Amino acid sequence: MASSDIERGGAKNGRYNRENFDVETPDNEWTSWLIPLFVVANVAVFVVVMYINNCPKDNPNLNEACVAKFLGRLSFQPLHDNPLFGPSSATLEKLGALDWQKVVHQHQGWRLVSCIWLHAGVIHLLANMLSLVFIGIRLEQQFGFVRVGILYLLSGFGGSILSCLFIQKSISVGASGALFGLLGAMLSELLTNWTIYSNKAAALFTLIVIVVINLAVGILPHVDNFAHIGGFLTGLLLGFVLLIRPQIGWMESRYLPAGSHVHSKYKSYQYVLWVVSVVLLIAGFTVGLVMLFRGENGNDHCSWCHYLSCVPTSKWHCDN
């Protein structure tokens, strides 16, 4: 998205001087450190999980089948057990995977957050961390670590809530909900700051294609598309709240002579989107958490929603 069309200016003899004053634009970048820290944290957690998993010791009869045995206790589960080169599902469940039974009936709500930092295997981890680097660093450079950190964590939390409401007979792990939240925030940031960008139609089309393709992958078996959808919707709404930019001309108007017309900081539609998004976020989190801890099953309220996460074909079946 181009930033060259954003005005720079100030008042000089009652006229704009575009070279004298800096304004809040994508050119004023922050140094990205939180996203790299998140990447390091995810990798470190995976190493700890593999250390605890200890395939050779806990599965002595499968010692010959453990993958990459030269890694010792860090070696991976047999491929028929985990084709993603990672730990067993029992280890993931023990260390904080999202499990409806434990969240609701054993009051382990912390799993709604802990599951974001766990990954099913090396392939899963690499795919998510590469996506996080490409998407997250640019967002953090533009908007700072506070807003991007809130986006990441709340989107992951929102994805966990929706996942737990609809997937109640298997565990779920991964940062995908948080990543989809960043994608959703990129889309809402483009929409709410529409007037300051050039080539916006192309950027919008590209973003929509990326989102649709990634959500389409979620209809494959063993992919938690509800976490993707929940994270995306959370990030989309948070983007309207956290990533709003002042309209063109507002910064310059502060340097105009007294009595001159002063632009409002934000456009009317930006205020409307902000208010609507805050209301929907509060309502969504409240309703979702109440339904979850009452033990309700989202599929009972939406008979077709299970197709959002898995569509049966002649090549595979979708069980519970």
Describe the structure.
- α7 runs antiparallel to α10 (225-242) and α10 (225-242) packs antiparallel against α12.
- The longest helix has 26 residues, at 268-293.
- The radius of gyration is 23 Å and the shape is globular.
- The protein has a two-stranded antiparallel ribbon with strand order 1-2.
- The chain has helices spanning 34-53, 55-58, 89-95, 100-105, 111-114, 122-143, 145-166, 176-192, 200-217, 225-242, 250-253, 268-293; strands at residues 11-12, 15-16.
- It contains twelve helices and two strands.
- The model is unreliable at 1-27 (pLDDT under 50).
- It has 320 residues and is an all-alpha fold.
- One of its GO terms (molecular function) is serine-type endopeptidase activity.
- Belongs to the peptidase S54 family.
- It is an enzyme of class 3 (hydrolase).
- This is RHOMBOID-like protein.
- It is found in: Membrane.
Question: What is the structure about, briefly put?
Answer:
The protein has 320 residues and is mainly α.
- Count of DSSP strands: 2
Q: How many angstroms does the end-to-end distance come to?
A: 42 Å
- This entry's quaternary arrangement is single chain
Beta-strand proportion? under 5%
Which whole number gives the mean pLDDT?
85
Q: Which segments are poorly predicted (pLDDT under 50) over 5 or more consecutive residues?
A: 1-27
Structural class: mainly alpha
Q: Percent helix among the residues?
A: 40-55%
**Rg measurement, Å:** 23 Å
- Secondary-structure element series: EEHHHHHHHHHHHH
Q: Overall 3D geometry?
A: globular
Main beta-sheet annotation: 2 strands, antiparallel
Number of helices: 12
List the strand order in the largest sheet.
1-2
